[in-house]
Design brief:
This protein has a single domain, classed as Aldolase class I (TIM Barrel, Alpha-Beta Barrel). It contains nine helices and eight strands. It has an eight-stranded parallel β-sheet with strand order 1-8-7-6-5-4-3-2. Helix 2 packs parallel to helix 3 and helix 6 packs parallel to helix 7. The structure holds D-xylitol-5-phosphate and zinc ion.
Length: 223
């Protein structure tokens, strides 16, 4: 049974104190750190890249879940691997050769994730892509910015995947909070990305614990 994995998105943190913010989340029970890489082309925003990931690497042993919102995902695989990325999640919309890219990522020593935007059908990842990938990310907002409203209408895609692939890691990203976690957990997601609702919480430990409990409870129905 896939277990709950909570991945705070550092996009919502105080970047002037990235190390302290990242370790604060790990101390509060985070399993992974979600690092949003944006290039200003695939999405209308620019964030960070390999140099920042490399600086953060010695500060924590946490698994680095790199969400690559970039127009040329094959270009950055080796750089992110060298910087210490553990999961390289590219957007299916950004490549014509997802299978070759998954092999490239594996060859570089990372896990491969494949992300799907709200307007993209889940059908494009069913079959070979979902079978080769280590994780599928179903976006629950348009990629590019934190703090947006959760798109409930994306959850049927999660359900389709969970029914076909009971053991797959399925991640959701965007607008996850205490009032939206039930929808994602019931839909079958087990990897929860959250920025605003964790970095802005007075007690992030409590929020992380609730997310975990809800996901682990919901996963029992798929055994
Ligand atoms: C959006 C990013 C998300 C973002 C989520 O493009 O992929 O990871 O940080 O932020 P919240 O949780 O605030 O919606
Ligand atoms: Zn993200």
């Amino acid at each position: 049974m896939p277990k709950a994995i909570i991945a705070p998105s550092v996009l919502a943190c105080d970047f002037a104190n990235l190390q302290a913010e990242a370790t604060r989340m790990v101390k509060n029970g985070a399993d992974w750190l979600h690092l949003d890489v944006m290039d200003g082309h695939f999405v209308p925003n620019i964030t960070m890249g390999a140099p920042i990931i490399k600086c953060l690497r010695p500060c924590t042993e946490a698994f680095f879940d790199c969400h690559m919102m970039v127009a040329e995902p094959s270009r950055w695989v080796e750089d992110i691997a060298k910087a210490g990325g553990n999961m390289y999640t590219f957007h299916i919309e950004a490549t014509k050769e997802p299978v070759a890219l998954i092999h490239q990522i594996h060859k570089a020593g990372m896990k491969a994730g494949v992300a799907v935007k709200p307007g993209t059908s889940v059908d494009v990842v069913l079959g070979e892509v979902a079978e080769l990938a280590d994780m599928i990310l179903i976006m629950t907002v348009e990629p590019g910015f934190g703090g947006q409203k959760y798109k409930e209408e994306c959850i049927p895609k999660v359900l389709t995947l969970r029914q076909k692939y009971p053991h797959l890691d399925i991640e959701v990203d965007g607008g996850l909070a205490l009032d939206t976690i039930d929808s994602s957990a019931q839909g079958g997601a087990n990897v929860i990305v959250a920025g605003t609702s964790l970095f802005g919480a007075p007690n992030p430990h409590e929020v992380i614990s609730i997310f975990k409990e809800k996901v682990n409870e919901a996963q029992k129905q798929w055994i």
